[in-house]
């Protein structure tokens, strides 16, 4: 099984970055490969080898979240601490296993079991229990969304 392992964190300048998590002498940082921009005035039809370099930025460790390996129904990557709207799948064993969907809002967390959707303090749903997932924000930028508000 192969999956992409990467992290997202918010810099002290307020921008989100994605890359590899690093402990830089006690400070949390995220490193990533950056590419040199095209040089203004460069002749467009001349092939140029793309130059890249490694860079890292310090991030607020509280904002760091791991990529789940999943994408929502719109193709958006899902990270730990994302707030999602989704449908909980309810099976009715008395009606030939008929499936109904119960809409809910959750936070993506990592627990002993792996990534879960947390609805309330002690109420978790596994990834296979939900469908129609849509990332609507995260707990750092949009905490009001957890109270059902729009932000």
Mind sketching the topology for me?
Layout: E1 7-10, E2 16-24, E3 27-35, E4 52-58, E5 65-71, E6 77-79, E7 82-92, E8 98-111, E9 114-120, E10 123-126, E11 130-138
Antiparallel strand pairs: 1-2, 1-5, 2-3, 3-4, 5-6, 7-8, 7-11, 8-9, 9-10
Polypeptide structure, described:
0% of the residues lie in helices and 56% in strands. With 151 residues, it is mostly beta strands. The chain has a 6-stranded antiparallel β-sheet with strand order 4-3-2-1-5-6, with no helix packed on it. The protein has a 5-stranded antiparallel β-sheet with strand order 10-9-8-7-11, with no helix packed on it. It starts with 6 loop residues before the first strand and ends in a 13-residue tail after the last strand.
Index terms:
single chain; 151 residues; 11 strands
In short:
The chain has 151 residues and is mostly beta strands. The chain has no helices and eleven strands.
């Amino acid at each position: 099984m192969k999956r992409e392992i990467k992290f997202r964190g918010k810099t002290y300048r307020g921008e989100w970055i994605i890359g590899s998590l690093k402990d830089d002498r006690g400070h949390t940082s995220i490193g990533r490969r950056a590419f040199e921009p095209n040089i203004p005035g460069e002749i467009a039809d001349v092939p140029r080898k793309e130059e890249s370099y490694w860079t890292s930025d310090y991030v607020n460790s509280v904002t760091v979240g791991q990529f789940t390996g999943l994408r929502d129904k719109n193709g958006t990557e899902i990270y730990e601490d994302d707030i999602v709207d989704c449908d909980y799948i309810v099976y009715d064993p008395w009606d030939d296993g008929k499936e109904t969907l119960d809409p809910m809002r959750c936070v993506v967390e990592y627990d002993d079991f792996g990534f879960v959707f947390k609805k309330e303090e002690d109420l978790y749903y596994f990834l296979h229990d939900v469908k129609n997932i849509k990332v609507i924000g995260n707990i750092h930028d949009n905490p009001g969304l957890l109270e059902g508000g729009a932000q």
